[in-house]
Amino acid sequence: MSFYEKYLNYRDFNFDGFFQNVNDEDILRILGKEDLNETDFLTLLSDKAQKHLEEMARKASRLTVQHFGKVIFLFTPLYLSNFCENHCVYCGFNSCSGVSRKKLTLEEVESEAKAISAAGHRHILILTGESRVQSPPEYMKACVGVLKKYFDSVSIEVYPLSTDEYRELVKAGVDGFTMFQEVYNEETYKLMHPKGPKHNYLNRLDAPERACMASMRSVGIGALLGLDNVESEAFFTGLHAKYLQDKYPDVEISVSLPRIRPSAGHFAPKFEVSDKKLVQIMLALRLYMPRAGITISTREKASFRDNLIGLGVTKMSAGSSTEVGGYTLPNKTEGQFDISDSRSVKEIKRMLCQKGWQPVLKDWQAI
180 CB contacts (<8 Å, ≥6 apart)? Predict the structure, then answer.
C-alpha cells in the first residue's frame, strides 16, 4: 500500500463543509482524549479551534516534555549544488531563474565542513538541486565520505531516489532523510511543477517510504505552506507522517512546517499562513502525533522561533546558509530563499539556555 491510497480517501473531501459543523463541544471532547484519530486532528485544524489554543498549548507542552524532555536538537544545512532541471514556479533555484550555478568540489565541501564543525554542529543536512547529471548519487557518496570526518550524522534533502540508491547512501554513512512534498493537492502540484522530473507527483510522494524501506534512521516530511489551502495541506502532512510512523515504527518520523519565503523568482503565495495558524498547526500535530519530531527552520523570524520553544518544536536549524558555498567561499551563489533568523549557533544556544531548555548538537553516532 502506498500513502497515495490514503490520500485518495480524502482528495475530494469537503473540508469547508466539515469545518462548518465543528463546535466547541467537539474540540473540548478531543482535548480530553489521549489518542486522537484523523477526524480529531482535522477538527483541531479548524478556525473554531483557535479559541482553544491555550488549552491546546498546555497539552502540547506536556506531551513534548514527556516524550522528548526539555531539549532542542540543532542542525544546519549545507548546499552542495544548485543545478536543477525543474521549473518549480516558487523556487529561486528553478531551471529558468537565471541564478548563477555552482557545484562544490570535494575540497570546497571540506572547507565548508570545517567551518560548520568549528561552530559546534555535529549533525548536518546536505542539499542539491534536482539534477542527476550534476549531482548523481556517486557525487553524494563522495561528499558524505568527506563529511563523515567532521559530523556524527549526515542527512540528505535531494531529489527522489530508488530504494537501492537510498540503501547505497545508508552504507556510505547517511542516516537521515528529508523531503518536502511541497503541496499535497495533486492538481496544484502539477501547476507548481510544470516541467522537469519533479512533475512526477507519485515518485516524490512515495520517496519517504522508499527511504524507510532502505533503513534510514530518521525520515522527515512536510508541505510548503502557502501553496494551497492551509488546513487541508496540514492535514495531509499529518496523515502522511502518521502513515509512515505506524508502518515503520523503528524509523524516527518528523515533520517540518516551512512557510514559503521570498526567493529569486519573486513568487507570491496564493494562501496566507498567519503566525497564529502556524502555531495552531504545530499544536494540532503534537496532539495527534506525540512522538513525532517537529522542525522550525530559519525561514521564521527570530522572535517567533523563540516563542515556539516549549510548544511542540523539537528541532531547529541554526547558523544557516541557503547559498552554495555560503559558509566559506567568496564566490557563493544566491540563496534558495531568504533567511529570517540569521543568528549564530552560539546565539541560539544562549537563547535556549535562558529559556531553561538544553541545546543538543549531538544525539546520535553510528557504531
Answer: 221, 222, 223, 224, 256, 258
